[in-house]
């Protein structure tokens, strides 16, 4: 009788449990992506392939299959067409529509073209931009089974060649919209430097009340910002778009954007908020 009573007491707690991101895992992903062997994750070449292999390994560890979409972009440094790739996985729940959840994996590498450093030796780690976003999305993939009741299939996408001009998302949008019925896109870009529990949300097509939160202070930003992010190619095609960030800081596009400056309690709060939004509306 005591055993039955114990299970009856525990079951509601288990059923109501919220997904939790493993802080150790978040740190491991960010530190790995910022390792010198990745050379700042520039598009194309061996470094990019190493990033894709690492992300593919993480996706497979969740029991999902990674896919690549190759494309070319114009490199302003060399004035040549260069290869890059998007990486994605599809979570098929048998629904009519699909929600995209995305983050760009690339960064500046050793290039000074878009760097805010006058001179430096080494590479741009890009811990916040955007290893933080990649880590959050990977943590979400690990929890995808807890969202079985979602009314949408999920497609998780990691963009390439973002820093060079949003080339990855621009190549992916027409390709995916020809093959899938996309309901909306949720983009995650720089979520590792939260201060004062503030999360910036850029969105269009949803009522502002949808994003209100009892824990975080949600700042609804200028919707024109969506035209400067990986949401642009989808917004231009009439897809409901949202992008979240904890904001720009002094280490943006510099070699000082390092893993030790990531505020992991804030990153965890971003993860928790995203899970709450997905549970309620997606």
Describe this structure in words.
An eight-stranded mixed β-sheet has the order 1-2-4-3-5-8-6-7, sandwiched between helices. The chain is an alpha/beta fold. It has a single domain (20-281), classed as Aminopeptidase (3-Layer(aba) Sandwich). The protein has helices at 2-15, 23-33, 45-61, 127-142, 167-177, 232-235, 264-281; strands at residues 67-75, 80-91, 98-104, 153-159, 182-188, 198-204, 217-220, 240-245. The model is unreliable at 1-16 (pLDDT under 50). The longest helix is centred in the C-terminal third of the chain and has 18 residues, at 264-281. The chain is built from seven helices and eight strands. It is 32% helix and 21% strand. The N and C termini lie far apart (40 Å).
Query: Structural class given helices, strands, pairing?
Result: alpha/beta
The H-and-E topology, N to C, reads as HHHEEEHEHEEEHEH
Tell me roughly what share of residues is in helical segments: 25-40%
Rough shape?
globular
Strand count, sense and closure of the main sheet?
8 strands, mixed
Number of separate strands = 8
Indicate the CATH class: Alpha Beta
CATH superfamily: Zn peptidases
Q: Give the mean pLDDT.
A: 91
State the CATH topology. Aminopeptidase
Based on CA atoms alone, the radius of gyration comes out at 19 Å
Task: Quote the beta fraction.
Answer: 15-25%
Low-confidence sequence ranges: 1-16
How many structural units, i.e. domains? 1
Distance between the termini: 40 Å
CATH architect. name: 3-Layer(aba) Sandwich
List the total number of helices: 7
Strand order of the largest sheet: 1-2-4-3-5-8-6-7
């Amino acid at each position: 009788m005591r055993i039955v009573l114990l299970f009856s007491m525990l079951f509601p707690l288990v059923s109501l449990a919220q997904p939790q991101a493993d802080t150790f895992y978040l740190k491991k992903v960010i530190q790995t992506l910022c390792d010198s062997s990745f050379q700042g994750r520039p598009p194309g070449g061996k470094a990019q392939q190493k990033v894709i292999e690492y992300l593919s390994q993480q996706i497979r560890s969740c029991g999902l299959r990674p896919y690549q979409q190759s494309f070319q972009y114009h490199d302003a440094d060399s004035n040549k067409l260069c290869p890059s790739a998007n990486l994605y996985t599809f979570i098929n729940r048998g629904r009519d529509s699909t929600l995209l959840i995305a983050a760009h994996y690339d960064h500046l590498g050793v290039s000074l073209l878009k760097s805010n450093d006058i001179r430096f030796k080494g590479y741009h780690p890009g811990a916040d931009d955007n290893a933080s976003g990649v880590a959050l999305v990977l943590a979400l993939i690990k929890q995808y089974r807890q969202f079985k009741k979602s009314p949408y299939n999920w497609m998780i996408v990691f963009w390439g060649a973002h820093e060079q001009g949003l080339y990855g998302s621009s190549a992916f949008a027409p390709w995916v919209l020809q093959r899938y019925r996309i309901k909306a896109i949720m983009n995650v870009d720089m979520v590792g430097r939260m201060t004062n529990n503030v999360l910036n949300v850029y969105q269009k097509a949803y009522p502002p009340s949808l994003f209100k939160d009892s824990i975080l202070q949600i700042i609804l930003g200028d919707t024109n910002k969506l035209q400067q992010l990986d949401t642009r190619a989808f917004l231009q095609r009439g897809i409901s778009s949202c992008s979240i960030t904890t904001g720009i800081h002094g280490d943006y596009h510099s070699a000082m954007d390092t893993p030790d400056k990531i505020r992991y309690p804030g990153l965890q709060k971003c993860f928790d908020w995203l899970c709450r939004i997905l549970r309620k509306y997606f």
